[in-house]
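Next comes a concrete protein, fold included:
___
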Amino acid sequence: MILKYFLPLLACAGLAFALWTVNTGAKPIAVAAPVAEPAEAPFEQTIAGAGIVEARTQNIAIASTVAGVAVEVLAQVGQKMKKGDVLFRIDDRDRRAELVVREAALAAARAELARLDSLPRAEDLPPFEARVQTAETDLADAKRQLELAESLPDMRAVAVQEWDRRKFAVRASEARLVTARSELAKLRAGAWAPEKAVASANVSSAEARVRAQEVELDRLVVRAPVDATVLQVNLRAGEFAPASAPTGGASQPLILLGDVAVLHVRVDIDENDAWRFRPGAKGVAYVRGNRELTAEVEFVRVDPYVVPKRSLTGESTERVDTRVLQVLYRFDPSKLPVYVGQQMDVFLEVRP
């Protein structure tokens, strides 16, 4: 008896629940109010463009010219750097050791040149002078022996061989005297000019090698190229710093710098609207998604080359199927709470 009425009641309850569910789901969902009203064009005729904030110097991606392990990273995010300030240092122990070797070679070359310049030494002269005196004495003795033979009344008193021996003794003594005098003159003249020129060239070459090694050491110290603020640091002490600059979309610069005293906004104008733009046109920039955050922007320049449009993520690999004319405007960052890399909506006035 109970089952007879239970099943119809259960069916009626299911039908009522289904009708209630359908009725509840059919009600329109209330649209949530936006957090901030979107930007509106402030001019009667306007060109709208997407912009991205960048530093006045553009965003400078710092790389190392020499690959190596970073031993010291001095740059900190938000730090203001002067031109020439050290950002980070690469391990330089091997190059410093090579510099010591080259400096030693330079010292040896300079010592050799100084030795040649100091010639002749005073203590080298007496032995050569003594050789000259000895040669002169031998020559005088040989001549005296020949004169004694020639003074004999009868030339036959001396054998022919003795005559020849005394004549040849005079000639040999004369030759030895010439040799001794030549060696003494050579010693007194000092080092030979071409020999000194070679030594001087060796000194210059050694100095050049030392300077080249000093340049190699200086290349291991990466410095700020301009006065700028550190925007990003992607290097820590102990990490390997590659020599090549980042090129791929996934790569990051070791350090990112930029002068943010004045900010620029790079506006992409579609190529279909490029003919309507005139340099110097007034502009108004809005923080994307909030028309309350706005500021007037001042024209800087036009990049006179239409390029493929990039997705505003800063990655060169993200492109879409259109081309844009890029125009730079500047504004005072104190008027807008924006940061480098942030997107903006920019409206430019078009005059009839």
Remarks:
- Confidence is low (pLDDT under 50) at residues 246-250.
- DSSP finds five helices and 14 strands in the chain.
- The two ends are 89 Å apart (CA to CA).
- Residues 160-189 form the longest helix (30 residues).
